[in-house]
Amino acid sequence: MNNFEKNENPLEFIDNSQSSFEALANLELETYVLRLYIARNNFKSIQAVKNIKIICEKYLKGRYELEVIDIHENPERLEKEQIFAVPTLIKELPPPLQRLIGDMTDIEKVRSCLSL
């Protein structure tokens, strides 16, 4: 017996399908919240900032918030965020929380961390 034979409203199925489609569409438009911990004047940190900005603009244009934190200016955040090495990229949103420590020149590694 199908849905029509049970006297169920066939439009209810369509409405649910539309809601599911909209939910999936919204998932792809989620805003990424990223924090990049760096040490000023450190070559790897400078490269990390450049590379992360390039990757975000290419794959997340208009859908990301990137906060760059210099550990020399904000040392109190090291313990709070458990930062042991720089550069460190933290993807806070969307879940799951991800961390990438060290070299940010491998685009595929960064994309994997960001779940792109």
Task: Report what the structure shows.
- The chain is an alpha+beta fold.
- The chain has 2 domains: 1-29; 31-113, Glutaredoxin.
- It has helices at 10-28, 43-59, 76-81, 107-113; strands at 32-38, 64-70, 88-93, 98-101.
- Strand 3 (88-93) and strand 4 form a beta hairpin.
Query: What's the CATH H-level homologous superfamily of the largest domain?
Result: Glutaredoxin
Structural class by helix and strand composition = alpha+beta
What CATH calls the topology of the largest domain is: Glutaredoxin
> Which architecture of the largest domain would the CATH scheme give at its second level?
3-Layer(aba) Sandwich
The overall pLDDT, averaged over residues, is: 82
Keywords:
116 residues, alpha+beta, Glutaredoxin, four-stranded mixed sheet
Gist of the model:
With 116 residues, the chain is α+β, with helices and mostly antiparallel strands.
Topology of this protein?
Layout lengths: L9 H19 L3 E7 L4 H17 L4 E7 L5 H6 L6 E6 L4 E4 L5 H7 L3
Parallel strand pairs: 1-2
Antiparallel strand pairs: 1-3, 3-4
